[in-house]
Amino acid sequence: MPSNKPNKQLLIGGAAIVALLLGIVWYVQSGLESSVVPSASVATDRQSSNPERAIADQAAEEATPKSSGNEIPIPHRYRFADVAAIEAVEDEQDLYARYTPDEQERLRGFYRSYGSGPSGAARKYFFTDIFSFHSRAQLEWLVASGFPTPDEVLAAEPMSNEELRDMADSGNYKAAAFLLHREAPAEGRLLKENPGSADNPNTEAFRLAVKNDELERQLLAEPSAFSAYAIAASAAANEESYKVLAAYELANLLGDQRATRFSAHYESSLAQSSRDQSSIDTSAALSSFRGLVFDTFGGRNSPDVRIELHRPRFEMTPANQ
Question: How much is the pTM?
Fold first, then answer.
């Protein structure tokens, strides 16, 4: 008689997501707003006749790039190297057609490491990775939210870690993301070789973990769904499944509805793997989510949380519903 273990894992994984979502709803509704000091502009909004509309308008103005013609400009705070814009297309297939097969493969691998979904025949209706899109509006949202464009990903490839760290230390958002994407797997490998090294300040694994934590905090200081995906990829490299789930929920909170699908696909992959993933620590996942939310919204220079939660969301097309 065939084993029903995968089904149990899926049920437990589904229960983990439900528990995490319930915890998130409670957490967001029980004082997240009060943990952030309002900005002066928001204080003025509160005195207006329609403060929530003013907040939503301000968020939309800040987050949406002014695209025109055949190009979508990249917001200055998200620019990397000399890439200032991306060609405006209606579908990811049109975008990838501009690159060689080898470049396409490398780009797909990069984007899937942050979040992946069904592939093959389902591609038209679902999202295979974090840079999947099926309309110009969706591409505009990705660019406005700081997702690295293909040209930026390719521009970062020949750069050394030292070059990226210098740029990150100077405040470059995507340089920090590219560096974390390289260093997190290196940290994971070191911890596998010597599990106890995580608690020993004299080890390379410990020093690298400290640097990676700094990169994560730098990314979360810019409340973008891509920041959350960067944390998810880092956690996946270290096999911290509870933190991966927490980061995906943060991405959803920050406007990317696709995150719930990436989260479900990640859980399904865990259930089908050879490793024992029969239980996911929902308490750890919720605790991790709270920490990520605090790092995102509770910092000294963070914008008002109400503005962030009113930013435009990833606009699903009817085929994507």
Answer: 0.73
